[in-house]
Amino acid sequence: MEGAPFSKYSCIDFIFSVVGVCTFLVDWGSDVWVAAEFYRRGDFFWFAVLVGLMVLSSVVVQMFSWFWLKYDRELPGFSSGGGSGVHAGADTVLCGDRVKLSCMLHVLQLGFLCRHISAIRQGFRVWWRKQEGSEYAVYLTHDLSMLRLIETFCESAPQLTLMIYVMLRTNNARTVQFVSIAASTTSIVWMVVDYHRSLRSFLPDKAKQGWGSSLVYFLWNLLLIAPRVAAIALFSSVLPGYIAAHFLMMWVVFVLWAWRQRTDFMDSAGGEWLYRATVGLIWYFSWFNVAEGRTRGRSIIYHSFMAIDGGILLTTWWCYRDPVLSQSYALPLLITLPLSYLLGLLFKALYYCCFHPKLWRPLARDPGLPHDLPDAEVSFRVFSIQDNTMSSQHLNRRMACHASNFFNSDQGVDRNTDSTKNAESSRV
């Protein structure tokens, strides 16, 4: 299985960048609208919570963006003007060598938006004007995909929970709340599709996946995230004073678990702890693979734990709910949410059984074998992102790390050379 050439920037990439910035602006605009409505109606606590989520999300995303910009500046050719290659055009995008200006933009919480604008600008130059810098345009889109993932679970998912909680608590729904729920849901949906598309771009040509895999990936995430958000909102509606303690206890456990998995995503110790803290927040809503090797066991532990926790949240809500006000929806929710979570697990199993590529490659292929056997008929060793024909300078190592973790996650392979050779001999 030969390595794939570097994926070139395409019209679809440009469309995704444009839709991504539109989604970001609509989500941000709906946040401001909801916050203004809360303030105008005198709901100062909910106003403070919503503004706090907005500020926290923005600060976290800006910190990741700034860390990555600092790391990228150390890459060869990043600041070279008029050159070619992965960073062609980097001197005119993301402020080039103007570190103080870049820092100021991030302090003003504009770094993420500037990255969107930079990606669109660079993509337009490459796709429409046929200029150089395709690799850098792709590089930017991969960073944006990661930042959208972080922004979604730091703001959109908590905000969606808050809006559902407010509707349940007041037993009333206003237009602005529906708009906010629609914007948050759209942001989550777009993040799931865009993130999986970025992961797929690292696959070799032979293992490229169609849109069917993205559909199953989307359904699995939707059916797992939606019951989780609903269960948290229902619990909050009856015991609002305990949800903060519930989150903090689980977040601490998740951060320690990420530390135990020895994550190595960022290039500095401070950045790595920021990453682990963010992973803890993401795990509060959804599973996210952060380490190489066997993860099937970790995934089973996580989903079992979340199923038990979700069951406790739903049971608590059922016991403390108002039977009169919740009569119309209590029983349907009690039945639908666990079934949705179970269906999400089934879709996840379906994905790994039918759509997840078997990224293996032989150390020494038998010359007598055909060169184009189906993946299922050939024994391969672990596919490494670094085995691609693209040079390491052309590679967004952050997204490549996640792609490697995701696509190699359930292969159950030890990356030690001796164990790999033993596995090869046993397969032969």
From TrEMBL:
**Residues passing through the membrane, by range:** 12-29, 44-69, 176-195, 215-235, 242-261, 273-291, 300-318, 330-351
User: Which BP terms in the Gene Ontology apply to this protein?
Assistant: apoptotic process involved in development; engulfment of apoptotic cell; phosphatidylserine exposure on apoptotic cell surface
Q: Which InterPro entries match?
A: XK-rel, XK-related_scramblase
The UniProt catalytic activity note for this protein reads: a 1,2-diacyl-sn-glycero-3-phospho-L-serine(in) = a 1,2-diacyl-sn-glycero-3-phospho-L-serine(out)
Alphabetized, the UniProt keywords read:
Apoptosis, Cell membrane, Membrane, Transmembrane, Transmembrane helix
Task: Return the GO cellular component terms, semicolon-separated.
Answer: plasma membrane
Q: What is its main location?
A: membrane
- Highest taxon above the source species: Eukaryota
The cellular location(s) given in this protein's UniProt record come to: Cell membrane; Membrane
Pfam families from the UniProt entry: XK-related
Q: How does it sit in the membrane?
A: Multi-pass membrane protein
- Check the record and name the PANTHER family matching this protein: XK-RELATED PROTEIN, XK-RELATED PROTEIN 8
Q: Which family does it belong to?
A: Belongs to the XK family.
Write down what this protein is called: XK-related protein
Question: What organism is listed for this UniProt entry?
Answer: Scomber scombrus
